[in-house]
């Protein structure tokens, strides 16, 4: 049985960042990376719609959620995750940082190249279990053993990337608990009574989510895309992370965020005075189909009610599209069960990084930032060096 100083379970963003950093800090360490799929960094190569939204200019605490959020905000401020890559980066107006070539696969290619020949890579090697003495068993090959193990095998989101929740089972087998798990950064199912004609239409909006008692749960701004099942888009993804564990939620869409309700009402009154059909009173100010849908919902009422619907268009939430469509998992191993070095308090020598921990971020590069920074941090701690 092959013996390693460090075995990293998971060849995604966190695992690769850890392996590359370990190699840089201490090339003498014998390191293995196990990956359930046929290629390292496959999920990373698809991030940001294939363009590689690797981080964000604003990595303040408000963008992270879960029991590790305070720790994560401090951690990501300490590590320059862009130093992992050898290319130029640029940011868009929202602060999302991409490789200048806008190709996510170049990021995974860079990390794979930096592994070099010194890191032993096991592909198509899904870890079935890890013993307390750190013997790693596989389904169809000889196992390996290690002095230390880094569990960085992701969560439950997007099973096509071999992130099927197996990491949580391994964590439990080594003494950990796992908080309830929910899909996050995911499309939402809503009542489509008033949006059936809007499939494929995108609008920039302010978006709020309220509980059944009327309490504001979350708010966001950005794209909302109407679908046959409900809504998608960046604003929806952000909201989804805050309401994943809630029921009875109502979304409130505020169209035309640059205009007040009074300004919208005045525009409707003016258009009506010019003889436009009732159904066309919002056309031009909004996408024609959105305008007609709002006018249909207004049911012949006056300009004040039309303006109110433009700024307060409500949709009851029926659920989400689930883990198969989610970008990240909400929940995981809680902060109380790891130290500041992200070493397990239950099993000495076991480190946890990335999505397996109870930390999720907003849409916009935050989850990758956490994956990279946590992997780098674990590497520094294992190598005996603090950044």
Keywords:
387 residues; alpha+beta; FAD/NAD(P)-binding domain; 6-stranded antiparallel β-barrel; 9 helices; elongated
Molecular structure report:
By secondary structure, this protein is an alpha+beta fold. It folds into two domains: 2-182 and 330-382, FAD/NAD(P)-binding domain; 188-320, no CATH class. Helix content is 26%, strand content 24%. Strands 1, 2, 7, 8, 9, 10 and 19 form a seven-stranded mixed sheet that branches. Strands 12-15-14-13-16-17 form a six-stranded antiparallel β-barrel. Strands 3-6-5 form a three-stranded antiparallel sheet. The longest helix has 17 residues, at 366-382. The protein is elongated, with a radius of gyration of 24 Å. The two termini are 34 Å apart. 49% of the residues are buried. The model has no long low-confidence stretch (mean pLDDT 95).
Low-confidence stretches: none
Largest sheet: 7 strands, mixed
Q: Tell me the helix content.
A: 25-40%
Q: Which structural class best describes the helix and strand composition? A: alpha+beta
Count of beta strands: 20
Mean pLDDT across every amino acid position: 95
What is the N-to-C succession of helices and strands? Answer: EHEEEHEEHEEEEHEEEEEHEHHHEEEEH
The CATH architecture assignment of the largest domain turns out to be: 3-Layer(bba) Sandwich
> Per CATH, what is the topology of the largest domain?
FAD/NAD(P)-binding domain
